[in-house]
Amino acid sequence: MSGTLRLLPLGGLGEIGKNMTVVEYDGRIVVVDTGLRFPAPDQLGIDLVLPDFTYLRERAADIEAIVLTHGHEDHVGALPFVLRQLDRAPPIYGGPLTVAMVRSKLDEHKLKDVRLQDVRPGDEIKAGPFSVEPVKLAHSIPDMFAYALTCELGTTLVTGDYKFDQTPVDGIPADIARLAELGRDGVLLLCGDSTNADRAGWSLSESLVGPQLEDAFSRCDGRIIVTSFASNIHRVQQVVDAASSLGRKVALVGRSMRKNVNIGRELGHIDVPQGILVEPKQIEDFPDEKLVVISTGSQGEPLSALRRMAAGDHRQVHLRRGDTVIFSATPIPGNERAVNETVDRIYHLGADVITTKDAPIHASGHGYAEEIKLMLNLVDPRYVMPVHGDHKRIRLHAELAEAVGVGPKDIFKAENGLPLEITESGARFGGPEQAGMIFVDGVDVGDIEDVALRDRRMLSADGIFIVVATVSEQDGRSVADPEIIFRGVPFIDDDAELVSALRDAVTDSLARSAADGINEISLLQTHLHDDLAEFVYRRMKRRPLVLPVVVEV
């Protein structure tokens, strides 16, 4: 008798990013993708956001394999952090480009003893009770695979990111025939990409972007700076082709851009004409009308090359009047503000900007509504669980499934940590598991307490007061004028009266504590914090971070 197939999303549902799905049968696990996402504006000081993979850490001995759909950060970026937390590293599978990108990432993290294996469409991966098959799909990066995971109960198809591009840049479209075969043989569960479920029709073919880029280039008299995802190998190829056709040299700026292009060239995914590439340090050696710069920073990332150019502090590229910056990407939801700030700074420096609002210079790597319906019809699944999308897009994906004939009771709108359990008698949600976010803050990985993020928000908005009070060890009374230090507090620099009133407030607070017989330093600091926070808000209508320091003498 068959057991229970369990699908547990640890990331990627109710959000865009940090995609990670646990597929479990007979106590054995295959993990599909280990992604991350970048922090929201209010997650101050956070560098990366990972899925909470406590479940995997506790079940490390049961993991048979990790399979990676493609090389984008929201599908592979958390892998080094996951591997560090596992007692044993399971074998890891992916397409040749995916594996090459991951190997480079693991080398940076000094993770050497990891079994990475290239797979290709039609290969069979044996992983405990699962037979896993990669299926070729098209996306904005080569070697994009869905995975068909077959166990005794049936086949689960996890699509990853996909579109049905009939004229992809590399000439290798999605394997529609194999998808149809899987559908004919019977797919138990489809976990499908929901990213563009809210966009009607069909997505633009990537191959149509190249002529649009060349047309935009032909109208530029000065230097051209194109920004795109560093992993969008096909887009880089089209920028190189457009530059070559117009007799321009190409400079690659940004560490990840140079690294990924080198990997793409080694694997034959990018064809760069001899002599067209120049080093970033040579940029000023060429006439403006003879140069194209390909840069990271399309999402306004704080430390990216384009953001530094916009701030005027990039070592090799100094934006000026006559330059044209082309954004060959659209902002990921949540990044709009950072992108808009970058664009505005570029205008301030005198350069021009072309975005996707001005010309069709970008094609999404995710299928629109008609492509989602095509996937549903090809695969003809018994059950559907939309993934890779916020709650709005998951619901719209569910409506598309219902529109093509999937029964409403067979569509499961899940969320992170909520497992779908399937047996011979049917499917239902099981009890929730731990899921959420793990933050990477500098080199530390773990939970950043809500209070820490709150303090960072307060610091960024209203600054900090540091109050140093010297009190008597015997009775806790103030024995010297308190010292008040403030940083980042608006409108206080020239307000001597307020500073004097603050000193009086400190003295009064300490006197009240002494009258109540309080002389323990921790309690004195607590009372001082509360009294000063109330005083400052009453006077300034702001809530700076108040940090009291009490010294006994």
Task: Provide an overview of this structure.
The model has no long low-confidence stretch (mean pLDDT 89). The longest helix is centred in the last third of the chain and has 20 residues, at 496-515. The protein has 553 residues and is of the alpha/beta class. The chain has an 8-stranded mixed β-sheet. Helix content is 31%, strand content 22%. It starts with a strand and ends with a strand. β10 (144-151) and β11 (154-158) form a beta hairpin. The chain is globular and about 85 Å long. It is built from 15 helices and 26 strands. It folds into 3 domains: 5-201 and 364-446, Metallo-beta-lactamase, Chain A (4-Layer Sandwich); 206-354, Rossmann fold; 450-552, Ubiquitin-like (UB roll) (Roll), CATH 3.10.20.
Note poorly predicted spans: none
Strand percentage:
15-25%
The major β-sheet equals: 8 strands, mixed
Into which percent range does the helicity of residues fall? 25-40%
What is the average per-residue confidence, as pLDDT, rounded to a whole number? 89
The helix count comes to 15
Record the strand order, biggest sheet.
7-6-5-3-2-1-20-21
Which geometry do the CA atoms define?
globular
Number of strands: 26
**The named CATH superfamily of the largest domain:** Ribonuclease Z/Hydroxyacylglutathione hydrolase-like
Enter the CATH topology name of the largest domain. Answer: Metallo-beta-lactamase, Chain A
The CATH architecture of the largest domain: 4-Layer Sandwich
Number of domains: 3
**Level-1 CATH class name of the largest domain:** Alpha Beta
